[in-house]
Design a protein that fits this description.
Purple Acid Phosphatase, chain A, domain 2
């Protein structure tokens, strides 16, 4: 699964998440892209919900152009599949990245060395329906309406599929992360959905139980917690989005989870992460 390590020397990594460029007017998008052009950083990290299926390629092209030669590491989020199917979206992204050198999609088995002490590993992830009320919840995810793969699934089959997607990311981290944890003191993990319920907020408050099934990837969280114990010399910091409510939680002395805040219609730069 693990490919050769990719080397992208980076001192300052700009983190973005949940920018939803499909929900802004042209003036707001232009202002945001101008900020990207001017910000001091060596590379970008985007943890999902960039656009929707119909506009994603165009918006990734816009981001690529604004960044010049700076690499853009990114994962997709659930919103990026709206109005399309997962297979179609992922095919279009692969084709785009093949002809756009500074766009680097995460989740292909890569370990990205940012410095001799720091590496980046990422995967899209997905909520797995296990947190909170689980399948007993009465809340319905909008993904069932707007992503073609899920439109015709009943509740039981939808939750089964969510469990499969969560386990897919868990298996990915189980296979790829040890290669990074065995070599680097600091490992950044990029994913869209927070991997631990402790990091869940919704509208600024702790996420209620009935919503939690759609806001946490417990399968990935269990793997991250377990691996951080197996490799105690490494510090793991997870960067996620999805909930639009900013929080940083220390799950253990070796594992932090940081979730981005976001406001629909107002894309923001999260923070510049110093790489040591």
């Amino acid at each position: 699964m693990t490919k050769n390590t990719l080397h992208y020397p980076t001192r300052e990594l700009l983190w973005l998440s949940d920018i939803h460029l499909d929900m802004v007017d042209e003036d707001t998008k232009s202002d945001f892209l101008e900020k990207l052009r001017g910000v001091r950083c060596d590379a970008l990290l985007i943890t999902g919900d960039i656009s929707n299926a119909k506009q994603l390629v165009g918006h990734l092209n816009d981001i690529s152009a604004a960044c010049g030669e700076r690499p853009v590491f990114f994962t997709l989020g659930n919103h990026d599949y709206f109005f399309g199917s997962m297979c179609e979206v992922e095919k279009s992204v692969v084709e785009l990245c093949d002809r756009t050198p500074n766009l680097i999609p995460l989740g292909q088995g890569e370990v990205i060395q940012l410095s001799p002490d720091t590496a980046l590993v990422g995967h899209r992830g997905w909520y797995d329906g296990r947190a909170g009320d689980g399948e007993r919840t009465e809340v319905v995810s909008p993904d069932q309406r707007w992503i073609n793969d899920f439109k015709h699934l009943n509740k039981r089959r939808f939750f089964k599929r969510m469990r499969e997607l969560g386990e897919e990311s868990a298996n990915y981290f189980r296979k790829v992360l040890p290669s990074a944890l065995g070599r680097y003191r600091n490992v950044l993990v990029a994913t869209h959905v927070p991997p631990c319920y402790q990091a869940l907020k919704y509208n600024g408050e702790h996420c209620r139980w009935e919503r939690q099934p759609f806001y946490a990837n417990c399968s990935a969280g269990e793997v991250l917690i377990g691996l951080s114990r197996v490799y105690p010399r490494s510090k793991v910091t997870v960067y996620a989005g999805h909930s639009h409510s900013a929080i940083r939680v220390g799950i253990s002395s070796r594992l932090d989870v940081q979730v981005a805040g976001a406001r629909t219609g107002r894309p923001e730069l999260q923070e510049v992460v110093s790489i040591h």
